[in-house]
Write a structure and sequence with these properties.
Elements (H helix, E strand, L loop, with lengths): L10 H27 L3 H29 L3 H8 L7 H31 L11 H9 L2 H20 L2 H27 L5 H9 L8 H15 L5 H6 L8 H29 L10 H11 L4 H30 L8 H20 L15 H27 L3 H9 L6 H26 L4
Helix pairs in contact: 1-7, 1-9, 1-11, 1-13, 2-3, 2-8, 2-9, 2-11, 2-15, 2-16, 2-17, 3-4, 4-6, 4-13, 4-14, 4-15, 5-12, 6-13, 6-14, 7-11, 7-13, 8-11, 9-15, 9-17, 12-13, 13-14, 15-17
Length: 447
């Protein structure tokens, strides 16, 4: 049984921390450029559908597994299905979190660099070429590796202090502030001349632009932005008290995730079209568009600094969850020091992330199936490991985990009708796994 010290102190703290784990780079950095590269409004509509029909049920399932076992990801499956191969789901999750963290921390380093440059006013300048600025930062090996390392060091320090004192306290304060600043940015973005074209691109679906690969990317994006498939939420919910409704908490996280994705699109695409930028710019889209937008505002440099610092926090809350699942997997036995394990994990992730950090400089010409190391790692995690993990979790809930325990965890802290439970359970048993298999086979050209 978890001790009180190891638990979230409040329901709000858990929801905001889970939302922070989910939102981060998925909704704010990756969603806009993936939408820009994959059909605009049609991609967004698919993303919403997958988030509600597939992502939300899996998020509930991960919450149920974690709190039902009261163990971190690897130990949870061992406890719920002892002496079986199902424990591979937890190991799959730790491996996925490790790979994800290895390139995620590189982007975190970009955010850290931009945050540092914005404070003394070194980003917004007359005649500044923002695409060129981004290329000069990501193309500098010294900057990218140092920022990558510093970002991981911050993660190690916070994770060393644990759940309540490390992650929860900061999430309660800074997550709401991020929403406020995002809304300010959206209000300014939609008032630019030519902004309506960007809004139409983002909100008006054109399904002729979609293909099987785009559909796979939309499914992967829904998993990436909710942080499901690598059992991060299994670990988080293992620290949760029984009086908190798991379906309601998952619903809150999913709604916040869709809302932030909507805000991100409304903040980015009006600026993209107003200034004649390219919506399919790729990973650098956010870092090019943000300075353009804030440069047109009164006190733009100050607002840019504040927004980047809040964005940095959102990125950190997501990375906290990744390092937490790795750390907790090796601290289940009480004799192991959390601080020591977090430090070792941080060093290993730093080393593993160096090739991704050099993907825009020294290793730019090194390709894996035509992709840079950064892009190849992103593709592997987002489009193979996350869907694969979600498929295994769906099968575990639908056909292996004790049904009485599932029902108990589903109904703790709420008065939802049995019909809602049945809909969710049948989704997990049939619709979720079949949909994942069909989308994945379709992307391979098999269907």
């Amino acid at each position: 049984m978890q001790t009180k010290k190891d638990q979230w102190s409040t329901k709000l703290g858990f929801i905001l921390s889970s939302a922070g784990a989910a939102i981060g780079l998925g909704a704010i950095w990756k969603f806009p450029y993936m939408t820009g590269m994959n059909g605009g409004g049609a991609f967004f509509l698919l993303f919403i559908a997958f988030t509600i029909i597939i992502g939300l049920p899996i998020l509930i399932a991960e919450f149920i597994i974690g709190r039902g076992a009261e163990k971190e990801a690897v130990s949870a499956y061992k406890k719920l299905a002892p002496k079986s191969l199902w424990s591979i789901i937890g190991k799959w999750g730790v491996a996925g979190a490790f790979l994800l963290m290895s390139f995620y921390s590189v982007v975190g380093g970009w955010v850290l660099t931009y945050s540092g440059l914005s404070i003394p006013g070194m980003i917004i300048r007359d005649g500044a070429n923002y695409p060129e600025l981004f290329a000069s930062i990501t193309g500098n090996p010294m900057i990218t590796i140092l920022a990558h390392g510093l970002f991981i060091l911050i993660n190690v320090i916070v994770i060393s202090y644990g759940i309540k004192d490390g992650i929860e306290k900061s999430s309660k304060i800074l997550m709401p502030l991020l929403f406020v600043f995002f809304i300010i940015l959206v209000i300014r973005a939609v008032t630019f001349e030519g902004a309506m074209e960007g809004i139409q691109f983002f909100l008006q679906p054109d399904f002729s632009k979609l293909n099987a690969e785009n559909v796979l990317y939309a499914l992967g994006q829904s998993f990436f932005s909710l942080a499901v498939g690598i059992s991060v939420m299994v670990t988080y919910s293992s620290y949760l008290k029984k009086d908190v409704s798991l379906p309601m908490s998952a619903g809150s996280v999913s709604i916040m995730n869709i809302f932030v994705s909507l805000l991100a699109g409304l903040a980015i695409f009006p600026v993209v079209f107003a200034f004649g930028l390219e919506p399919a710019e790729g990973p650098g889209l956010l870092f090019i568009v943000l300075p353009e937008a804030f440069a047109q505002m009164p006190f733009g440099e100050i607002f840019l600094s504040l927004f980047l610092l809040l964005f940095l926090f959102a990125v950190l809350t997501s990375s906290f969850s990744m390092l937490e699942i790795i750390t907790s997997a090796f601290t289940e036995k009480k004799e192991r020091s959390r601080k020591k394990v977090a430090a070792i994990a941080g060093v290993v992730v730093f080393i593993a992330g160096i090739p991704a950090a050099l993907s825009s400089s020294n290793l730019a010409d090194f390709k894996i199936f035509g992709l840079t190391i950064f892009d190849a790692t992103d593709f592997l995690v987002s489009n193979i490991m996350l869907p694969g993990g979600c498929l295994l979790i769906a099968l575990f809930i639908g056909f292996k985990m004790d049904k009485t325990l599932i029902r108990q965890e589903f109904f703790y802290g709420n008065r939802l009708s049995p019909g809602i439970y049945q809909v969710w359970f049948q989704l997990m048993r049939w619709i979720v796994p079949i949909t994942i298999i069909i989308v994945f086979l379709g992307s391979l050209g098999i269907l």
